[in-house]
Amino acid sequence: MGSGANKLIIKLNQRFFLGLTALAVPLLTFLAPKWLSISGIGPSWAVLWLLPWALVMGPVSASIAGLCLGLVVDGIAIGQITQVPVLIGLGFWWGRLGRRGPRIERSLNLGLLALIGAFVVGLSVWIQNFFLSLKNFAPFLIAWGFHTLLCQAVITGLLAPIICSLLLIFFRKRYSSF
Amino acid sequence: MGVAPWVKVFSWRFWRKTAPLLFLICGLGFVRWSKGVFFSDAYAFITRPFWPGNAQRDWIQDGNQIELRTRIGLLEQDNQRLREMLLLDKSSGLNVTSAPVISRSPNGWWQQLELGKGRQNGIKIGNPVIGPGGLVGIVESTTPITSRVRLLTSPGSKIGVWVSRTKQHGLLLGIGTNRPQLHFLDKDTKALTGDVVSTSPASILLPPNLPVGVIQSLDTEVLLAPKASVQLTASPEAIDWVQVQIN
Fold first, then answer.
1. ipTM score of complex
2. Contacts of B115 (CB under 8 A, 6+ apart)
3. Using 50, 70 and 90 to split pLDDT, how confident is the model at A68?
4. Which residues pair with B197 in a beta bridge?
């Protein structure tokens, strides 16, 4: 086996071990720390993990990570609403941003990307809720949905500069091929 | 002549590279299908030393006494009617088990509780979950050692309820906000703000006459049937122990 194959195996192993940090997503979703919430609504932990992963690993790996993460977060939530498509899409978009544009590492950029990500995730959940169970409650749905959407996007955007920056540094340092 | 790309699918190297990823995705698909069977159990295992202690259980028992007094009042009102409806006697005995709340998200997109007891303790999907003050929610999914509860406030939650003063049935629907919406089945409702809403005395799915909440506001100008906003008597934000009725 040539040195190229060896390098590939090392890279895959590195990705696998770095990917284990994603286990923090279900753990934090379960823990739901109250002091990291606005009006009792916590951040989207999946978005906070996926953003730095996508910026470092690229679109294909991030899409697969979005799929895996989506399956996990769907598994630990009630009902049939899914986050899989939106997380795959976000992973792909952020992966392309990370590979094609200038390097993204400023706090403000990370915060803005995470805020948009949490907003898109919330919007998809809101729309699914609307069609699955709340068609007849449009006024209530708008008020509750808007409140939840806004709170989650803001708290995710506020936490991103801290959490995403740290994860970004960690992934870049550990993933040697970058 | 080069090899066509689809031929690579049959090669050993291709499968060696992609098999672990496919296994991972299949495994996570199973997690999704089973509603987080492995993750819930692992979380329960890790956090077991931090589960709420017995002091909270005593506090809940005090709360239960207040709840029981309310229930006795309601049961006495129904006693006469039940004598005429002998079929309802079956559902009067409560077989309950206490379970610690190991994770909660009473707000946000998913309004749910994670309990530290599951199938091994006899908990099944559809079992009612009772907190100090009254009904909290319904068990949505179970694993061997945990169970997940859909709160009454959660979108998609639907239970049949009863306004005891006017003896009218209605449907309590979770709409995401702290106050679920009560849809009356009759156009001519006599319910007033402050009326107690409880589970139906004729219910066989839920424990009968269990307090659920109090009518906070009424909207009688709806064309088909009136609607009311209900303030729940049990607050899932503050509960560390709940009781699950096992059938």
1. 0.80
2. B99, B100, B101, B102, B123, B129, B146, B147, B148, B149, B242, B244
3. very high
4. B163, B213
- In whole angstroms, what separates CA B74 from the centre of its chain? 22
What does the pLDDT read at residue A37?
87
Q: Of residues B202 and A178, which shows the higher confidence score?
A: B202
Q: Which residues contact B4 (CB under 8 A, 6 or more apart)?
A: none
B155/A129 touch (CB, cutoff 8 Å), yes or no: yes
B144 or B63, greater pLDDT: B144
Selected residue of A38, A39, A44, A78 to mutate for chain B interface (largest B Cβ count, 10 A): A78
- Kindly tell me the burial class for residue B59, based on how many C-beta atoms sit within 10 Å of its own C-beta (0-12, 13-18, 19 or more): middle
Domain count along chain A: 1
When divided into structural domains, chain B yields a total of 1
Is the confidence at residue B88, as pLDDT, over 60? no
Is B89 or B128 the better-scoring residue by pLDDT?
B128
Chain B positions touching A75 (Cβ under 8 A) are 28, 31-37, 39
Question: For strand B211-219 and strand B158-163, is the pairing parallel, antiparallel, or unpaired?
Answer: unpaired
Mean pLDDT, rounded, of chain B:
81
Closest approach of chain B CAs to the CA of A125, in angstroms?
7
CATH of the domain at A127: 1.10.1760
- The pLDDT-based confidence of B51 (bands split at 50, 70, 90) is confident
* CA end-to-end span of chain A: 23
Q: Which domain holds residue A8?
A: 3-174
Residues A98 and A58: beta-carbon distance below 8 Å = yes
State the residue range of the domain holding B205: 40-247
Q: Is residue B16 part of a domain?
A: no
Q: Which residue's structure tokens are 């692992």?
A: B42
- Ramachandran angles phi, psi of B24, nearest 5°: -60, -45
Res B89 pLDDT > 50: no
Q: What is the CATH number of the domain that holds B152?
A: 2.40.10.340
**Cross-chain Cβ contact A68/B24 below 8 Å:** yes
